[in-house]
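request received
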Amino acid sequence: MKIGRIERLSPEGPRPRTVVVNPAAEVVVDVQRAEQERLLAAGDSPEAALRKARAIIPDSLSEGLGSASFKADLARAMESEPPADAVIGFADATWLPALDPPRFRDFMAFERHHVEARRVLGRPVPAVTYELPTYYKGNPLTLVADGATVDWPGYSRWIDFELELGLVLGGGGVDLCPEEAGRLVFGVTLLNDLSARDRQFHEASGNLGPAKGKDFATAVGPWITTVDELDLRAIPMSASVNGERWALGSSGEMMWSVGEIVAYLSTAEPLIPGELIGTGTMGGGCGLELERKLAPGDVVEIEAEGIGLLRTKIGPSRPLRWEPPARTPGRTIADVTPDRS
Amino acid sequence: MKIGRIERLSPEGPRPRTVVVNPAAEVVVDVQRAEQERLLAAGDSPEAALRKARAIIPDSLSEGLGSASFKADLARAMESEPPADAVIGFADATWLPALDPPRFRDFMAFERHHVEARRVLGRPVPAVTYELPTYYKGNPLTLVADGATVDWPGYSRWIDFELELGLVLGGGGVDLCPEEAGRLVFGVTLLNDLSARDRQFHEASGNLGPAKGKDFATAVGPWITTVDELDLRAIPMSASVNGERWALGSSGEMMWSVGEIVAYLSTAEPLIPGELIGTGTMGGGCGLELERKLAPGDVVEIEAEGIGLLRTKIGPSRPLRWEPPARTPGRTIADVTPDRS
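response:
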């Protein structure tokens, strides 16, 4: 099953809705609306059908994933013919990021990305690469959908893409083993982890980050494919820029398994349903490794077999209204700003 | 005004509630309950009073902060004598983390922390320290309240505390100047940014992180003091361990102002109400800088004048159920796991 998110107009303005996607027919079905009709046909009053449909398939997909029976609920809602107004053609769909996660963390699970990025930067591969599945915390509030144009942040001269898979959790738990952790994965989507490389490396020199080097936008979509349709250790992946193939590989090139990275995340802190977990960049899956750079107007398409194609356009530079002025060592804000401000 | 969060029992189980805190009288007032009574007294039907009180002072404090009139709404609810069941003594209060933020980011805004931590580690202070207000993304889903005992993660032999202020946003915006950004700050709380130093430094060697070095827990509380009661550039701050004073300083020692760090965050991405922003560790405000270490059973108290005292107990070691086994270079999961798993 393929599950996505679109925006629909309501009397309260645009609202997110969970859809089941039929890529061959190029249509999506608003599942809450389909469930409402199914309940009506089963004899519920209009009020009960609406109330129950909203509870079973809530507007928030990550909230829906908290239900242990969510996948079965989606399937049941789709069993009978959905009402005509629940079926929306791709041409009329306003896509949202494939998930609205409460948290987003992103690994570096491909050895070749570690090796190639360091080769280009002229640095050794650090020992930790082979000791821990390292990750950084991404920004769950700047996710963008398939087809988005992303502003080029004014503080950067070097924007890059990253070809990644995104794992979507359908359950929670703490201190899990890889076998237990792997079972939490509900589905897989595509991530284009956009990066301002110059800012990212500048920040990293301070032993923090990535912060502004990644925080401005991450593309997620076009939709989520449930794990029963995938072999997680053999998903063909590729990336193209302006129609030219830049990268080709497979999820099988990961050095840490999906179960291992989810288990590591669960160590000493609970995971919750609806979380988004990135695998990190496929080896060769970014401009840094390939020594090629993006320019405003470029269109990046990343693709994975059995999932889909995620298209992102690199927009024009967004001007800065303010930049932090350099500091003088030894000067504090109490020295600089004598007035209360 | 001082605003906190407690847990109250409801027919649906424990629920979070926003409270106004009176530290002198050692009582808190459940503001939603007080507002409900005020609306009843003003002539609303019981149903209307309950419905409006829930909308005006929602269970989620960060959601409440999205209302432009939130502070005035809190004050109005407190104008008349609250009903007896809305008033809870400190002895009976189950504190929650002072905020339920949708996002948590944490700066390093004190120059002395940069300098002293590097002195101990035998490293130079990187140039970026004086060029950018650097930050890392914290974990908003492992916040703990005043009085919590925090498990010692089994992967660490070196747990440390960090004395910080936490800024709470009462509005949003993008690409702000410091003057505009400073006006978004609704209040200030205390943060004890607990750190597993050995894991943090190990992770940082891979140019990511902090991840497991910080993700296990951050203490936030005891409550939030609104900015009208504070001079943000002169808040006395201190930390004690087992009753012994370890650190003493002031928010005036920051090298970036509150307006500057919030403005930097707003660059090229929107801020939203309810966000939590850490100042980073006060100079000398952690064991690393002081070359002292915590042990299980230690009680850390961090304090700020006009805000309060945040107490955290370091608990016993939490055993690991699984640890990532080291990788062999060149081996992928497709090599290691021939079966689908």
